[in-house]
Amino acid sequence: MKRFPMTLQLACILFIVMVIPVSILTWYSSEQGLRNSEREIAESSLAELVASRRLNESALNSLSQDTVRLSATGTFDRIRPFPTYEALSADYGNISRAMAIMRELTNLNRRAEGVASSFFYLEDSDYVVSTDRSITTLSRYESMDWLEDALEEQRGIEGIWYPRKLESGVPVVSYVLPLSRLSTTTRGTIVVNLRESQLEDYLSSSNEASTDYALIDSKNTVISHADKSLLLQNADVLPFFNQLKQKVSVDGYSFGETGGDRVLYAWTHSEPFGWTHLSTYSVQELLTRTHTQQRGIIVLTVIVIFIGTFATLLLAAWFSKPARELVRTLTLRGYLGVPGQNEFAFLETAFRRMQGEETKLHELLRERERDARSLTVQRLLRGEVDEAASYVFPYTYLLVAAISIDGYRGYSSKHNSETRSYHRHLLNMYCDSLFEDGLIGQFLYRGEGYFTLVLNDSHEESDQRNKEIHAYIERIREKATELLEHTVTIGVSQRAKRTTSIPDLAAEALEAVKKRMIAGSGGIHYYRAEENREMKYLYPDCSERRILNFLDAGDLDKMDAELERIAEEIRSADYISHDNILFIYNQLVGVTIKHLQETDSRAARTVAGKGSVYSTIASLDTLNDLQTYIHDFYAGIVGAMKPANEESQSHADRIMNYLREHYCEDVVFEDMAKEIGISYSYMRKIVYEMNGSSLIDSLNKLRIEKAKQLLLENERTITEIAAAVGYENARSFNRFFHKYEGMAPSVYKAQYRTS
After folding, report:
1. How far is CA 6 from the centre of its chain?
2. Nearest to 330 by CA among 352, 345, 318, 316
3. Pick from 520, 736, 539, 555: nearest CA to 637
4. What is the DSSP string of 319-348?
5. Which of 228, 377, 454, 680 is most buried when burial is the number of CB atoms within 10 A of its CB?
């Protein structure tokens, strides 16, 4: 744009001012019309889907009510005395009773359209009465394995609808109704199989724009669909279904994209059945007339824009004539060495060039001043005289604060060198802008996690001034903790008046930092001259001897108690230096290593593999850190001295004993691990290595073995035995018994008691 003539620029501006509002207005009106049309059509499609859903509910409710009425007539009481096919077929009268039931089932089928078949199964019998195969044994009829899964979903005395396929391959939705004890003493189940094609007739839309439909139950199983290969599959394979599960409304619609085409999804939820009805419509087919109107509006808009373009060019040429004359004059003179640009470009280029040069100059001056101050502070800390000291520190009083990162090894392992450098820069910038008039602070990084802050104060020492400086140091500590994501300890020196005292003040500040060995990390400590006394603490020889005796016995608890006693004596000492504390623990470690080399070569090799113990001790900041490290040091030695499989074998015995004692209870494995004294994951590992199976399998196998004994020993019922071995109900017991034994409990009992 900088090289385009001003006339063209003005023409573009006027053109944009005209075109953009017109285009936006056209687009907005078209889109609003399109969206309104989509909304109206979507609501109409949803209303059609709701009507289809109600028709489907009405038909299914009618069929279920007819089935319930039939169950209450006492018809099925006729065959209650005949639990076997042999007993039923022994007499013609018995067969007649069964045929009467079959005729009632046939009449039930005729009352509703689309019923494939129906049958009645007397509980614990070996035959069924059906409309498709008359009276036949279970072995000649289709499998009843699905019936137990279907009845698990039953709530109350009402029947349930269960989608499945017949052995013939015909997809059906079966209405399963167990006979209610309120109306009859006969125990059995009525099953009515409604063809899936009948549901398709209810759900298929007469709308030409309808492209697909689906009926999905509460378990996300496809009950009915135009694509029969999707029947009884998980509905997640359907487009949009994953988004539909996130919708909170019972009925609704949404727009989406499928194969590059915009489609409308409408859904409605059936409360009595827990089913979801989903229909898909092509938006292109629904909005054919609306799209035609939209194209007409776009053509009219293009014509208006085309006419307005010529008027824009004339206005731009008239408005830009004076400016073009000025641009021509500036171009001929070659101002700023940027020929070929218009007036606005010249002014913009000149302003940016001056602004950039001024910014660079200020940055350069600030960097030079900061470097000069840092160099002066470094020389003063080394004890060198610097002529610029009076300029850097113009006030009378000086004091030094040493800032040390607690646990520097952990901090440096957590952050790389670039991140650490960035943290130092941020902390430096914060300290530069922190102090008010009358107090100057010069911040410097000394390496290995140490910073030095030299403060130059214009006020004499007083309680009020000391509180103010302490507040500044607290703010630095909090900011450093935030920036470094790590705690820091700060040591503060005494005051002095001469810059030549700065090295001594820095040494005092470092000495004050060492107080964290007793006080702990994250504090602020002040140097006191009277504390610098040559006093040493040595732990008693008997402590050393006791620790070695406890080590030989493998008694880690008593070693911890002795170490804690030493630590308490250190804390209670009037004064003890940092170096004295390190000497104590170094001596204790050295004696231990020597003892191991003389008595236990395997444990000595374990200690040798830990690296330099002494350098690790020297890097620790607090007495608590030392205690933790020494505890881990001795724990590793005790572990090396103990046989490898002794502990796990002991735990394995305790685990199996616990399962044998509590197999009939509701075992919570996490609580079991806590009671044994190990972690849950370690307990799982021990059981798998011992049995080759999981915890739950081991528990269930133990329960089944106990159940097998009970089945053969007494006359308890299956329900009583299930409760006795820890199962909530007989259904779960039957499932696990069949899993591990390959047969039902009743079959096992009959087979083995007979033999």
Report:
1. 58
2. 345
3. 555
4. HTHHHHHHHHHHHHHTGGG-TT--HHHHHH
5. 454
Neighbours of 8 (CB within 10 A): 15
d(CA 401, CA 456): 11
Q: pLDDT digit string (tens) for 604-657?
A: 666 655 557 787 887 788 888 888 888 888 887 776 665 544 455 577 888 888
Please name every residue paired with 397 in a beta bridge, in sequence order, or none if there are none.
Answer: 457
Specify the long-range contacts of residues 670-677, CB closer than 8 Å, at least 24 apart: 676/651
336-361: b or e for each residue (b if 16 or more CB lie within 10 Å)?
A: eeeeebbbebbeebeeeeeeeeeeee
CB neighbour list of residue 51: distance below 8 Å, 6 or more residues apart = none
Q: Rounded to whole angstroms, how far apart are CA atoms 71 and 180? A: 8
Report residue 673 as tokens.
């691990």
The C-alpha angle with vertex 682 and arms to 679 and 683, in degrees rounded to 5, equals 85
Dihedral (C-alpha) 504, 509, 514, 520: value to the nearest 10 degrees? Answer: 170
C-alpha angle with apex 121: 120 to 123, nearest 5 degrees?
145
pLDDT at 316: 63
Count Cα atoms within 13 angstroms, Cβ side, for 748.
20
pLDDT, average across residues 198-226: 78
Residues 6 or more apart whose CB falls under 8 angstroms from that of 45 comprise 205, 207, 253, 264, 266, 279, 281, 286
Position 61, amino acid: N
Measured CA to CA, the distance from residue 739 to residue 748 in angstroms comes to: 13
Residues 6+ apart with CB under 8 A from 66: 108, 111, 112
Which value, to the nearest 10 degrees, does the dihedral of the CA atoms of residues 267, 270, 275, 279 take? -20
Cβ atoms of residues 613 and 633 within 8 Å = yes
Give the residue among 747, 749, 738 at the shortest CA–CA distance from 714.
Answer: 749
| Each residue's pLDDT tens digit, 558-587 | 888 888 888 888 888 777 777 888 888 888
Measuring CA to CA, which residue among 411, 447, 451, 407 is closest to residue 428? 451
Amino acid letter for position 423: H
**pLDDT of the residue at 19:** 67
* Tokens 């008593």, located at residue: 558
Q: What average pLDDT does the structure give for the chain?
A: 79
Phi, psi of 393 (to 5 degrees): -120, 85
Q: Output the CA–CA distances (angstroms, integers) from residue 403 to 371, 412, 415, 445, 473, in the order listed.
A: 21, 16, 18, 9, 10
Q: Is 370 helix (H, G, I), strand (E, B) or coil?
A: helix
Cα separation of 62 and 111, whole Å? 9
Would you call 446 helix, strand, or coil by DSSP?
strand
Q: pTM for the full model?
A: 0.41
Alpha helices per DSSP H over 485-537: 502-513, 516-519
Angle, alpha carbons 513-518-520 (nearest 5°): 70
How far is Cα 389 from Cα 376, in angstroms, rounded to an integer? 6
Q: What are phi and psi of 706, to 5 degrees?
A: -65, -40
Please name the residues in contact with 157: beta carbons below 8 A apart, sequence gap of 6 or more: 178, 180, 182
Structure token pair of residue 428: 């430096």
Residue 254: C-alpha distances to residues 40, 84, 291, 358 (Å): 13, 56, 20, 58
Intra-chain end-to-end CA distance of the chain, in Å: 102
Q: Position 109: which residue type?
A: N
**Tokens 């023409």 correspond to what residue?**
11
pLDDT tens digits, one per residue of 355-397? 776 777 777 666 677 777 778 888 888 878 777 777 788 888 8
Query: What is the Cα–Cα distance from 727 to 736, expressed in whole angstroms?
Result: 10
